[in-house]
Amino acid sequence: MDFAWTEEQNSYRSKVRDFLERNLPADWFEKYVFGLGSQQQIEFSREFCPRLADAGLLTSHWPKEYGGNDSSLWDLFILSEEMWVYAEPRGPQYMGVNWIGPALLKYGSPEQKAEHLPRIASGKYIWSQGFSEPQAGTDLAALKTRAERQGDKYIINGMKIWTSYAYKADWIFLLARTGTGRKAISVFLVPMNSPGIRVVPFPGIVEPGHLHEVFFTDVEVHASARVGEEGQAWPIITYALSHERVGLPRYHWAERVLNVAIDQIKQENRFSEIVQVEAAKILAKIEVARVLAYAVMNERVSVGASADATLPNIQRVSGADACSDLMSFLMEYVPDCLYGGNKYLELFYRAQIVSTIASGTYELQLNLIAQRELHLPREPQ
Amino acid sequence: MNLNHTEEQKLLISSVRALVERHGELPTAERRSQYSYAHRLAEELESGEFMDVAITPGMSAVEAALVVEEVSSCARVVEIGASALVAPHLIRDLPRPVALLTAAEIAKPHRFLKEARSALVLLEDEDDVAVIDLRHLQIEHTESIFAYPFGRFKEAPDLTRANRLGGSSAAVMRQWWRLAIAAECAGAMRSAVDFTVEYVKERQVFGRPLGMFQAIQHRLAQCHEIVTGLHWLLMRAAWSKTPLDATLVATYAQQHVQKLSFDLHQFNGGMGVTLEHKLHFWTYRFRALQGELGGQNASALAAAKIAWGPGSTPVQLPSIMGGSASKRALSH
Question: Taking the model in full, what pTM does it have?
């Protein structure tokens, strides 16, 4: 058991840092960082990610034939940690790299791989996630958007909601009902410029440009846009979300946020022993989330990714607990960060508002741990 | 980074588990006890040199922490944390079992004091450690609700005449004592959660297993998350050997004693307050550890002093993020 990074991994981390220092504009923080869903940041990611791809840093963990370098999953992990120190200049493209790409690598047809993986690896295309609906958030199987088969096409009607980045996305990874059974759901890869798609932004508390409704009215897609067999979306969703759930190294970001907050508190001569004790308890939780993330990645490197793995759920719960405590700490000791005091802290706070809800609620993680890890009996349906 | 167990670690864990299984069964006469001291297990751990793995060539504190965690998962108790994790970092060939105490509280009852042959005494005011040979001192057993044996000196020893370890021994003792607390908590907490998970699968209420209710599933899932996280933080603290990691893992262990004690006793209901039900053999061990060496707040304050106290580097964001880059900001 060895927690040390190898020389190669340290070298890779240095390469990523150097790239960031050289390729982010001097006014990155002032103009771009604030608002992960902002127009400026999304547009910037379209310039930045191709440069990252050219440097071999966007999808180095993918197979060579699809634009990667067959490098270790640890490289993706290190890349994500460093990106979040700089408030994720990849913008929404982490989705394509972290979980849509890997899902297509496992479940996509040869044609889908040939079409989409090079695009994601180029860093020029933005994806959005068409999962949630007004009556289907945590209970995804309750979704109502339908895809009716007509010859070699599907006709899609319905709506999605809370869809991040939809107004700037090129493609959507869409779930639609294709049968009558509760889980008769299929995955479709749909261009966002398809006739019949309408995106409507609506205000939310996280940040402008974060939330959208996406309406589908008689949207036609070829049957070849379906991923996997008809009605077999569930293993694909589970596999994709198992990547998504550890995709964001919140612990790494949280550690820096805690340190920045403490520096401010010290400068204001308010770092009493009470505050120190509270801060250290949060640091302990952050470090637990960190080592659990390492354990998840170690499991994935050692035995491969599995939709049945529960360590990602355990890690997600630990990260949520740490970040929730940190949010309260910020509000108690540096509340001015939400009215102009420190934008770095405000960015973290705003981004964490949905972190226990998006891509599987905190409670859903607990369900999965209880049933798959502890094998506790399910309630009768 | 490679977090898989080595072949030697796998062998070590399976060997300790086999010993715990062989000697961990509660004797009939002790099934309704506050605690049950596993003398044969202690002898086998001694003769198998399991208590020396921290200083065995090719092994380290990681292996010692694994041993302490595994032994602490047993319903029966032996003195293991002080012998396997604390003493080896301070002094060789100390007669075992070993009791750990602070000078300020020397007159109070201490874990294992009556069974121990040696004691390590933390002298906070002098920043030193005293070593006491207990074999000729009079010590009485102290009754308690806890699942460790407690004892107290009939007459407190004169510490001015005790051997001193000097140097940085006080800091070393604090660090490894905190790690030992976390390792013992990790083992006992894991077993208490596992025991409760099995119980709620069997126990029927309102015509269904207790464990079918989501209110219970969610809290047990949280308990499982806590023990899993504690294990991994313990492993890193044993691997890194840094005072900061040791304080953090003790903080994490001690701050979660309350939740685990509350939830696990709630789910075991009335059975959990009977001595024959076994739950207390684990819960009243980590309850005893909750306040050791000052408890979660002392551990957290110690962590804060290391992380942010005098001598620590002010944290600044990378230049591109609106600050001037520092090594500390990008330290991991």
Answer: 0.92
